[in-house]
Design goal:
It is built from nine helices and nine strands. The protein is of the alpha/beta class. The protein has one domain: Rossmann fold (3-Layer(aba) Sandwich), CATH 3.40.50. The strands form two sheets. The chain has a seven-stranded mixed β-sheet, sandwiched between helices. It has a two-stranded parallel sheet with strand order 1-7. It is globular and about 60 Å long. Bound molecules: S-adenosylmethionine.
């Protein structure tokens, strides 16, 4: 995969929701069923973004309290508008320096974020610090290097036309063996991993294309093209995704998930 050195910008919570939030909830549903949390816990959602996964915690896990942190105000402002998230505390912060005391939470999650953290080990150590003994630190991340990214067809086609897609800085952190090392190095025990496979169907190519245009990542690469380049690229992508010419488009994606327990009490 060819990469651009341009950072991914999260400047539009609604565009993010169509582009990635829908995918996050699809994988997040499998993740939540797997981690099967007890009700009444103090939750921290690290890199909560626009609240895509936070919604699932609020709806399904009966939290005692729920805090989401993210460095993007555009994402946080979208999350703050969501009717289900009115009791959630959203804080602008970085995963590598969580603004909370030790042992303040029972459950910390990092949904689709670890590869965005410049020093993933610091992020995992911070989650282990703020979770109380006996609590859980868990995450899921697209299998970026193994072909699990939902828009792989788009990034490959962009590379083919010399327009690399902006990518997160710590892609290797999505490998299962790297995740296991990170969790072990942070002193977490009872480490378990899982692969979560999902599919999403777009009603037609138009819907798929407008989803791309409004999103970060591949959307940024498309925004940098002139009209002629964009329409040439659109035709190439359509030919790749819709050999039959029309109709719905179903795409697969695959995430790596991990969970571990803070030792003690
Ligand atoms: C792919 S989005 C995931 C958002 C949400 N968790 C979800 O599941 O849809 C990645 C998020 O990580 C956030 N992020 C980037 N760098 C971060 C960091 N150092 N600490 C915490 N969050 C970060 C971005 O602002 C963005 O909202």
């Amino acid at each position: 995969m060819t990469m651009s050195s341009e950072p991914i910008r999260f400047t539009d919570g609604a565009g993010y929701d169509r582009f990635m939030g829908v995918w996050s909830r699809l994988a997040g549903q499998g993740f939540l069923s797997w981690i099967a949390p007890q009700p009444g816990l103090r939750w921290l959602d690290v890199g909560c973004g626009n609240g895509a996964f936070t919604q699932l915690i609020a709806e399904q896990s009966a939290p005692l309290s729920l805090v989401g942190i993210d460095p993007s105000d555009a994402q946080l402002n979208f999350a703050r508008q969501h009717p289900l998230l009115q009791n959630v505390e959203f804080v602008n912060a970085d995963a590598m320096a969580l603004p909370f005391p030790d042992a303040a939470f029972d459950f910390a999650v990092m949904p689709l974020v670890i590869f965005f953290v410049p020093e993933p080990a610091r992020g995992v150590a911070e989650m282990a610090r703020v979770v109380a003994p006996g609590g859980t630190v868990a995450a899921y991340a697209w299998d970026m290097e193994g072909g699990g990214f939902p828009y792989r067809d788009v990034t490959e086609t962009l590379s083919a036309v010399g327009r690399p897609t902006p990518m997160p800085p710590s892609l290797e952190a999505s490998r299962l063996e790297v995740l296991r090392d990170l969790w072990a190095t942070a002193g977490l025990g009872d480490i378990e991993t899982r692969v979560i496979a999902v599919e999403r169907t777009f009603p037609d190519f138009e819907d798929f294309w407008s989803t791309l245009l409004g999103g970060p990542s591949a959307g940024q690469a498309l925004a940098a093209m002139n009209e002629e380049e964009r329409s040439g690229f659109r035709a190439l992508l359509r030919a790749r995704l819709q050999a039959a010419g029309s109709g719905p488009i179903t795409l697969p994606a695959r995430a790596h998930a991990i969970r571990g327990t803070v030792p003690g009490p």
